[in-house]
Amino acid sequence: MCHIPVFCWISATVLEHMLKHKREEMPKTLTEMYTHLVVFHTKQKNEKYLGKEETGQQWNKESILSLGKLAFQQLVNGNLIFYEEDLKEAGIDVNEASVYSGLCTQLFKEECVLYQDKVYCFVHLSIQEFLAAVYVFLSFINNNENLMEKPQSTSRNLSVLFMDKHKVTVYKSAVDKALKSETGNLDLFLRFLLGLSLESNQKYLRSLLTKTRSSSHYHEKTVKYIKKKIRKNPSPERCINLFHCLNELNDHSLVEEIQSFLRSGSLSKPNLSPAQWSALVFVLLTSEKELDVFDLKKYSRSEEGLLRLLPVVKASRAAL
């Protein structure tokens, strides 16, 4: 992510604000970083345009939900550019679209294309993915709607009655949909959605939440479900993203397990499970050390091992 200019801008914006105001612990995950970004710009907008000096994390609920709905609908459709009819479908008054653009200039912008109608887009796809995740999360917590599945015919009363039983399904549904995508267009969205499921991140959404529930039990189930998917050996790209998802959920057990193998020097033996191979690739790809020369001789030379290590070889400048 540090090679992406917009993420450098996001990091600088968030960290400068937090250091300047001596805020709490620095963000450690993408979800935390983007949450702080939107909170910061919402607060900035309130102070600049509404004359309100906010001391806490304040969100403009209507704006966030409308932009979130637009972000989710267009993300599912694979669209990065939106038109007036798209805004109307998301509940945004076209006549007031410039207000959204003006109030959230760092998050959403309006462009006028020569000889065409106005078009709209988010500053970066990752902003769209984050707001889409916020919308799906809030729809689930506040309205008991699982937007990752088709609407159920069950009555609302029965739906509420079985809320606890189905609470985890929005995360499972999102994992399944992301894994089915060949393009990986839902990968980052999934990471944000799972990150928002943590209570530690929900404290920043207080003004948007109408209900609060303990999530520790569902967190454990979601982690187990992701590990189950990793063991089923998806494509390397999807598998690596699942490890990023575990990181957003603050679960590092598989990574710590493979790090013990690295310390013991037992990786030259073909005794790793598919999940452990995936963890090894994730550890190597996310290492702070530059992959100038990757020495394959340190690892198992089995056919499976070599195939598993291909993403690392591709990311290296040379391999031995």
TrEMBL record:
Where in this chain does the entry annotate a coiled-coil region?
none
Q: Which Pfam families match?
A: NLRC4_HD2, WHD_NOD2
- UniProt keyword annotation of Repeat present: yes
Q: Which GO terms describe its molecular function?
A: ATP binding
What species does this protein belong to? Answer: Hucho hucho (huchen)
Entry's localization field = Cytoplasm
Q: Which residues form the NACHT LRR and PYD domain?
A: 124-257
Major localization class:
cytoplasm
Q: Which PANTHER family does this one have?
A: NACHT, LRR AND CARD DOMAINS-CONTAINING (PTHR24106)
- Specify the taxonomic lineage: Eukaryota, Metazoa, Chordata, Craniata, Vertebrata
Q: Which UniProt keywords are present, listed alphabetically?
A: ATP-binding, Cytoplasm, Leucine-rich repeat, Nucleotide-binding, Repeat
Q: Which Gene3D superfamilies match?
A: Ribonuclease Inhibitor (3.80.10.10)
Which residue range or ranges hold the NOD1/2 winged helix domain? 64-122
Protein name in the entry:
NACHT LRR and PYD domain-containing protein
Which superkingdom does the taxonomy of this entry point to? Eukaryota
Q: Name one GO cellular component term.
A: cytoplasm
